[in-house]
Structures are given as structure tokens and as C-alpha cells.
């Protein structure tokens, strides 16, 4: 199940308390982002033991910018990340965000 986050404080808690999680930066107005969200949602439904979160860029601009700046990864939307032990282990954007690519990223980082 997908969980929405909106604040830097929530994100900091996740980095501190969770050893591994996915995050999707999602635009509410972009059709490519909508397609990526559907793939992300499919992945989340098939992998309910994995923490899968998202942020809506329009609603959470400070958090979106913080992720880009803190991890030195140019902002794109849509953009998916796999965080492990407080670091970005994998990221992808646009059409590269598929249920399969998300699953492969997690399998590689076991």
C-alpha cells in the first residue's frame, strides 16, 4: 500500500527508522508521471512487505527539493528512489519506472 509523505521531518524519520524503502516523486499534472505512478502502485500491491511512499511534487515542493539537494541527484518528475541505510541505492525516472525495474532494484540490493 502506498503512503503519502509531505514533510522533510517525515522523510528524516524514515531515513532514521527504516532500513529500506522506496519513494516516488510524482507530478499530479503529467501523463508520464501518472503512468509511472500506476507502475509504482502495481509494485506496491505486489510487494506489500516493502515500504512504498510517494510525494506529490506540487504539494511537497520543499521535500522534493530537499531530496534532490541532500543526495545530489538532479530533480526529475516522475522519479523513483530506493533508499537503504540512509542512502540512495537506486533511482530512475520517467519511462524507466516500471514494476519490474522497481523489483529488480530491490532484488539487487538484498
UniProtKB/TrEMBL annotation:
Pfam families, per database record: BrxC
InterPro entries: BrxC, Thioredoxin-like_sf
Domain of life the protein comes from: Bacteria
Descriptive protein name: General stress protein
